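User: Can you fold this complex?
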Amino acid sequence: MVQHHQHEVVIVGAGGAGLMAALYASRGADTAVLSKLYPTRSHTGAAQGGIGAALGNLEEDHADWHTFDTVKGSDYLGDQDAIEYMCQQAVPVVYELEHMGLPFSRNPDGTIAQRRFGGHTNNETKKPVQRACYAADRTGHMILQTLYQQCIKNKVHFYDEFHVLDLLMRDGVVNGVVAVELATGDLHVFHAKSVVFATGGHGRVWEVTSNAYAYTGDGVAIAMRRGLPAQDMEFFQFHPTGIFKMGILITEGVRGEGGILINHQGERFMERYAPTVKDLASRDVVSRSIYLEVKEGRGINGGRYVYLDMRPETVNKYLALDGRTGSDGKPLVVTGDQLLAKVPDIVDFARTYLGVDPIKEPMPIQPTAHYAMGGIPTNYYTQVLADAQGTVVPGFFAAGEVACVSVHGANRLGTNSLLDLVVFGKEAGKQAAEYAKGADYKPLEDDPTAFTRQQLDRILSNQGGEKIVTLGEEMKMKMMDDVGVFRTAEGMQSAAEKMRELRGRYPNISVDDHGRRFNTDLLNAWELGCLLDVALVTAVSAEARPESRGAHSREDFPKRDDVDWLKHTLAWLDGDQVKLDYKPVTITKHQPMERVY
Amino acid sequence: MLVYLKIYRYNPEAGRNVPSYDTYNIEAEPTDRVLDLLEEVKGHIDGTLSYRRSCAHGVCGSDAMRINGRNMLACKVLVKDVGSEITVEPILGLPVLKDMIVDMEPFFDSYKAVMPFLVNDDIPADGKERLQSPEQRERFDDTTKCIMCAACTTSCPVFWADDQYVGPAAVVAAHRFIFDSRDQAGDDRLKILSDHGGVFRCRTAFNCTEACPREIHVTQAIAEVKQAITS
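Assistant: Here's the predicted assembly.
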């Protein structure tokens, strides 16, 4: 049975970007939010360390410094007009979150607490600056909760556990989505004037990831199946500090509070790779350094991991060596209890999953697949773009991790993802409502669920015997080995070939569950299809870029090439072919320079 | 190690309209999460097994279930912590829809009923943050941690017996605002919670505190709300 709904604005995804969009869109238009999870389960809630904004509560700081740091962090691939907009908006939007009730940690004077984070600096002294506004190590949780609470207050219309499977278009204009209701298995058509995708990322492509099971690249895959491009997919961030083997995130805030990375010799090895900011270099730099240490045999006991050490004696030793002082000007000294209060969840995770008390022992960590810099191309009004010329797709907006504005370029700075969510989520909500005001409902095609049914029926009717998990594991291993922190032409080619093989085998997967109610077997299979599409486009986009920039680091092309490759990749998926095109980076104030930390 | 895994099954649509158990012997590492075992069964043995999960590290609240009779998050309990015989069942007091999936709507309805949002339209003239001392912030810190997994509410014997009771999680949500120095609607929330179905239904069984995977002192929060109403 197919059910029909009509809402002026339909928002897909209920994390930080989706909820912020919902708050703003619902002020000016009849708005509905669809999420495959309950909103409070969204992955925004897993973000820990902070949201970047140059409030200057503890020391001098400027939005212009934040802008430059973000441009540099992006390895000059970020679009500078969009970055400047985001960093300027950061200050008022953080105050707005506080006004909504977000329980930030506080300084003694009652202002919002701020901490150091990788790549955020005082542009004059080049030293780390306290810019990350935080609520202990639960900043994402607090943002998600606060925005959801505000949505309840403002009576936003939610469709919880509705999994969107298709984007509807007519004559190039977006006019709705198709979703399956998990509880019943019914298909629902949502006829809309404008659609916002805020569906999150796709870290589940890789074997070791900090990402939730839900992070399966649905938004990018759906858009590509409707003929739209994906931008800069070769740039995927590996966060330096994931729990060894499990990949669970250990916030950069641990290093912001004085924690350091050490190798088997007990050496603080980041001094060699980033002499000025050391452990607080950009994530791409730190992840590469860990890989090189491991490669040189300096992993702990020769293994594939190093230690993140936040024992008070270690922290205090290096705070003294770095000459760090407190707000009273005296040398900074911390206690175990103070560290526990700053990062309580990290202590809990380490105790639960590692059996390690990080106040007493160092934590074994390795880089973990964390964040998609690439995604659906948009301008900084969040309008989705169809090509390298910047042609807008009418009625279609995207924000948050699924979108590529691009404010993160080739490497995102910590705390800028939460910022991206709220700044561009808000913009998307406003834009979508504004667009809806001046638009009519574009008539639907005759059989709007045809493509969705075709995809689901093919999975349900297969007797091929391939298992979802087998294909998934082969994908994750291959992408981890060959499209991870370091890459070579040979590795990426073989990864692309492997993804084509897996996509060839995909039609032979069969599922056990043929029912309608909560058929998570079927939806896992559908999500795997998204992951394979995204993985293929990632491998091909990566292989085509013969330089090293940000998170895309090639052993065979170790240098950045601004002459030929200071440009964004656009990729279209057509069968098992990937068509590529390129578009220029917007540069306003900051000419590319060598990037050292 | 070999784990004997016993899983509750219920799916009327597929003819399993009487709850029963499926059993498996699974090879596992002591450091595996119980969720990893469920993934092993679903991925390799029986794809019809159904449960909710997302973050897999105890912060999203999707996978509260009864593990050896106690409410826990399947992703936040390791095999070595529960032993080699593990029984997994849905949380109690909410209608079971399929295997470990329960109807969460009544739970979220109770949450929404306590005004779980900051009420304060006064914004500082300079547009900046409202000031709040670290001590004022600390006052309600514990109840900000709630992830709405329902482990507390569905461990509460009063909630099992009385579907009017809003349950511990809703009280936690109210507490988070009642004790926030910035909020102006504390009296409204206290009125809601002093009603039939409110906080005085609590009989201080402490199950909620024991069940909370975020180690929130739930019973204490309820006591503080009771105190605020009577004082």
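The CA atoms of residues 461 and 510 of chain A lie 8 Å apart. The two ends of chain A are 58 Å apart (CA to CA).
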